[in-house]
Specification:
Elements (H helix, E strand, L loop, with lengths): L4 E6 L17 E2 L2 E2 H9 L6 E6 L3 H12 L7 E4 L6 H11 L6 E6 L7 H11 L4 E6 L9 E4 L5 E5 L6 H4 L4 E9 H9 L12 H10 L6 E3 L12 H21 L3 E2 L6 E2 L4 E2 L4 E2 L4 E2 L4 E2 L4 E2 L4 E2 L4 E2 L4 E9 L2 E2 L4 E9 L1 E3 L4 E2 L4 E3 L9 E3 L4 E2 L4 E3 L2 E3 L4 E2 L4 E2 L4 E2 L3 E4 L4 E5 L10
Bound molecules: uridine-diphosphate-N-acetylglucosamine and magnesium ion.
The site of magnesium ion has 4 residues, from loops.
């Protein structure tokens, strides 16, 4: 982009309409928070400055954003709006932090997580020499949203908030998406002249846009190609709708990469999951951020993969299996009713139905190491930390006591498990 860019993200509101105690901008959406998603869309535009406006539960929001966006932006700046008096007031406060900045000011609302970088890029390009450009859309349901006002020649003249609309204005189906690119030098004086002339007694950012038109400028508008991009979250119903849209985006990307998702309507995969081609995902899985799944794997039905889980190529996780921070070696299998926590499972190991790694002693989590080609009998409980060697075997229902070291090829049985014998291995089969 030709001009320096500053991003302002508005995240100070209480989110009263959600009726939950968590700040609205921290509501979860496929492994990210709402504000994190909105900010991530701006990252590829390489903003020189990023200012986040906070107030309600500001320490919590600041901590969450700082942690989740570390490494994405050079530096995030946080400003406290004080008691929030509207979106215009929030931008006034942000512009104090940007007093020495000249260039494009891109304003995004922290409750609009589905916006894409491409649309934001086009919005900034569209501004040209105008004081501002505005993103609009034609959603199926405009309830609660600001309506776009146009003159007889279809020129943009302003934005009217739902609560301030006449009946005729409520019938307008073009709405304000909540994304604007301003010329910093035009924005500053326009903000200074804002007045709370509306039903809510707030300073509306939307009124700033109208003042440019009143002073004779043309304000170009960009219509979002896909109305789902502008989905704002004001209630938990909105959140559920936004989640479905975001989930669809994530799944489409995996499908395009050759991941066989049998039923996308019954599959939960967060952001930040890698999956290799030719892997099959059966219905009902929940796969969290930070999982890495190789090629030719199989997951599900009804499996739960949590952060830090790695499936090497050809590994299989079946029904009612939960894996947390667990590495399954190539071709290893855990097909039924199992919990693997903090476990390292060797290649081609077979984890029998109902196996549990008891990784938590109430204070600390401990690791379980299971060797290559090991065979755990159904209902084995391995109390961690423990080690099971390559080609070792446990009998059905074995309880492997904490601190056990089962040697290679040893067969252990019983409660607690004891050494029974050394295992005879069949000669490796030749592949046809
Ligand atoms: C806003 C727009 C509306 C648009 C809609 C799109 C205004 C006046 N209205 O309405 O035209 O159709 O978004 O989703 O801008 N915030 C602050 N400080 C404040 C008030 C709000 O930081 O004083 C933040 C909120 O945390 C939120 C964002 O700004 O992330 C938008 O505020 P919200 O109250 O949700 O505005 P809407 O009613 O959705
Ligand atoms: Mg909103």
């Amino acid at each position: 982009m030709s001009r320096p860019l500053a991003v302002i993200c508005l995240a100070a509101g209480l989110g009263k309409r959600t009726k939950v105690s968590l700040p609205k901008v921290l509501l979860p959406l496929c492994g990210r928070t709402l504000a994190q998603s909105a900010l991530l869309a701006t990252a590829p535009l390489e903003p020189a400055r990023v200012v986040v406006v906070l107030h309600h539960q500001k320490d919590k929001v600041q901590k969450a954003l700082t942690e989740s966006l570390a490494g994405t932006f050079g530096r995030l700046e946080f400003v406290d709006q004080g008691a929030p008096k509207g979106t215009g007031h929030a931008v006034q406060v942000a512009m104090q932090a940007l007093a020495d900045f000249r260039g494009d000011v891109l304003v995004v609302y922290g409750d609009c997580p589905l916006i894409t970088t491409q649309t934001l890029y086009e919005l900034c390009e569209l501004r040209g020499d105008a004081p501002c450009s505005v993103l609009t859309a034609f959603p199926e349901d405009a309830t609660g949203l600001g309506r776009i006002l146009r003159d007889d020649d279809e020129r943009f003249i302003g934005i009217r908030e739902h609560k301030d609309c006449s009946d005729d204005e409520l019938a307008i189906d073009e709405i304000n998406a909540g994304f604007y690119c301003f010329d910093s030098e035009a924005l500053r004086p326009a903000l200074a002249s804002l007045k709370p002339n509306n039903a809510q007694g707030e300073l509306y950012l939307t009124d700033v846009v109208a003042t440019f038109v009143q002073r004779g400028a043309e304000v170009p508008t960009l219509q979002a190609e896909d109305a789902s991009e502008i989905t704002g979250v004001n209630s938990l119903v909105d959140l559920a709708l936004a989640r479905a849209l975001m989930q669809e985006r994530i799944l489409w990307e995996h499908l395009q990469n050759g991941v066989l998702i049998v039923d996308p309507s019954a599959t939960w995969i967060d952001h930040g999951v890698t999956i290799g081609a030719d892997t099959k995902i059966l219905p009902g899985p929940v796969i969290g951020t930070g999982c890495a799944i190789g090629s030719h794997c199989e997951v599900g039905p009804f499996a739960h993969l949590r952060a830090g889980t790695v499936l090497e190529d050809g590994a299989e996780i079946g029904n009612f299996v939960e894996a947390k921070k667990t590495r399954m070696g190539a071709g290893a299998k855990a097909k039924h009713l199992t919990y693997l926590g903090d476990a390292v499972v060797g290649a081609k190991a077979n984890i029998g139905a109902g196996t549990i790694t008891a990784n938590y002693d109430g204070v600390h989590k401990h690791e379980t190491r299971i060797g290559a080609r090991a065979f755990l009998g159904s209902g084995t409980v391995v109390v961690a930390p423990s080690e099971i060697g390559d080609d070792a075997m446990t009998g059905a229902g074995a309880i492997v006591k904490r601190g056990s070291k089962i040697g290679p090829r040893e067969v252990w049985v019983g409660v607690p498990a004891r050494l029974l014998k050394q295992r005879e291995l069949a000669p490796a089969k030749e592949k046809a």
